[in-house]
């Protein structure tokens, strides 16, 4: 005979355990224990033994690990024994541009393109903000007729940089791959403050 404890909440079986033999009574089975005719084999990897409807059976154990909602890829920790419901998967969503297909995540090319365009717009706008900060003093010096040759050179470099930023959409692999133009050297930037 083999004795096992059964978790009241999950019905998970642990053991085998040795129960004390009480003189004159023999082995007294606690309320949270079962007696089986033989020792259970080791559970398969990722599975545990449970006691259900008077029989020991193996269930997949995905507790305390992230699982993902198929509708949006959001993770959370699963706490139940057994297979996942149909709306969940153990496969993480590769990125926000994937949607659940029949049995795996599938790239939504249109969503990826739209997302990458939005990311590129934000990055370009951030770079253009720096241009405004750098160009304004140079432009004012030029308009007042007080710009040095170095300041005029810096102003032209920033204007060329601005034109290149405005043309990133013309690149072959835009928006998936962008060859960002390099901002004028810091030495030119310092001239704008001279």
From TrEMBL:
Xref: InterPro entries: Phage_T4_Gp38_tail_assem
Pfam family, one: Caudo_TAP
Name the UniProt record assigns to this protein: Tail fiber assembly protein
Organism from which the protein derives: Pseudomonas aphyarum
Organismal lineage: Bacteria, Pseudomonadati, Pseudomonadota, Gammaproteobacteria, Pseudomonadales
